[in-house]
Every structure is written in structure tokens, then in C-alpha cells.
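Exercise: predict the fold of this chain.
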Amino acid sequence: MHIIPAIDIIEGKAVRLTQGDYSQKKEYNARPLEVAQQFEDAGLTRLHLVDLDGAKEKRVINWKVLELIASKTSLHVDFGGGVQSDDDLRMVFECGAKQVTGGSIAMKQPDVMERWLSRLGSEKIILGADAKNEKIAVSGWEEGTDVWIYDFVEKWVEKGIQYVISTDVAKDGLLQGPSFDLYRNLQDRFPDLNIIASGGVSTMSDIETLADMDIFGVIVGKAIYEGRVTLKELRQFAE
């Protein structure tokens, strides 16, 4: 299983939100590159980088942070937040991202997402399927929908999506454990999909349970920053 540490960016700094609430922001490091280098030094090879300003403004804003991390580390960076146009997409890949996550755009402009998938292939585009009570949430989780997550994912699997990041908004940042049932349900319905679990991871036990489920990857953020899970412990999963 891939351990994918997360760096969320607001105003160029590494922060974490609780349940996607911008008013519940905690700053961890003014230099995200330092954080990324610590992950790399621990033997981790991937990074989930989220432009929270971009998610709010619906355009990529913190591209310089991406460019810096991609040029100064060898981390496989998947980037999300504010990628809403062809120009955003081009800029993100030019700045060094290996994959781009499309969540809001997959919901609101599916024709654009479909075009990206067709043009770049399923190795480059990750579906963002974030949900609250199994209903899709978009725009940095500020908007709820009535769309059932399994219907949403099925639609995109039929169009060729191979990777999905799914965050249970109700769990994110609370350090109360992931939504194991959500990921089991996704795996049961879509056995060939590379599912990346996100939100709620608080202990090594959570990570080991997901590993036992044969989940493709798990995003770990606040648990690292709060010292609940150490980089030394994560070395066992280093690739």
C-alpha cells in the first residue's frame, strides 16, 4: 500500500483544516518544501498536494509551491485544488505534477474532465470523490450535492478512470479513524479501481487495517503533523 503524505497550502504555507472548514485552520510550516523533503528523507515517494486557495477561488493559485517541491524533490506529486480549466491543467503539469485530481470539475463540468481523461490517459487523472454521508461534496467541500458517491464513481469508471481519492468529509481532520465501510463498499463495487483512502487516519492501526484491505493507497496528513504517526513508523511502507 502506498503511503501518501498530504500538504495542504494556504497563502504558500502548509496548513490543515478540520472537516474542510477554512475557519478551523492550523498552520504547520511556512516552508512546505521543508515538509516535503522530510517525507522524502523518510523514504516516502509520493505526495498529495492540495491548493486550498485554489479550491476556493476555482483556479490554481499556489503553483509556485508545486514547482518548488517538484524541482527540489523526486516525489511523485498528485495535485488538486482549483484545476478548472485547460490552462490550469497545463500549468500544473508544467510545474511538475505527475497526476492531477479532478473533483468539482468532474461533477460540474464532466465534459471537460472527460476530455482531459481522453487526452492524457487514466494514469494522469485521478477522480476526486469526496463525500459527506455518502453524498458527493465539491468546491473545497463548501457545497453538498444529492449525488450518491457510488453512482458518481461508477459513471467515471465506465469512462476509464482507474484512480480515485475519496475523503469522508465528516471524518477529515478529526483523528477519529477513517471510513472503513466506505472503502470496503467502493472496493466491493469496483474491484479493479485503485482506491486512495483519505481522512480520519489517526494511528498506525488505521493504516494497517487499510493495508490488510489491500487499498491502493492512504493519504496521511494531520496524524503526521500532530505526532500520532511518525515518519519512522511509516518507513515500513517505504517503496
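Check your answer against the key: The longest strand covers residues 2-10.
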